[in-house]
Amino acid sequence: MSKLTTSALAAALVFASSNAVAFHCPADMKKIDAAMAKNPKLTADQMAEVKKYRAEGETLHKAGKHQASVDTLAKAMKILDIK
Ligand SMILES: [Cu+2]
Question: What pTM, to 2 d.p., does this model score?
Fold first, then answer.
């Protein structure tokens, strides 16, 4: 395989995987919103934390930082005890 083909292939793979993560954020945000709509049994502190991570995740997603967004949203989901 030529060097050019290899790097084009690598670029395609990176694009495909970052795209998969890009779809992950809205899906996670939806899950968090759905869980929050059900009045979860959380302390005021936990509620504030979930809201903070949810907002941070959306900002990161819009900034194109999808992996950071998924990681941040995961923290909110952990507090809500959802996957
Ligand atoms: Cu994203």
Answer: 0.76
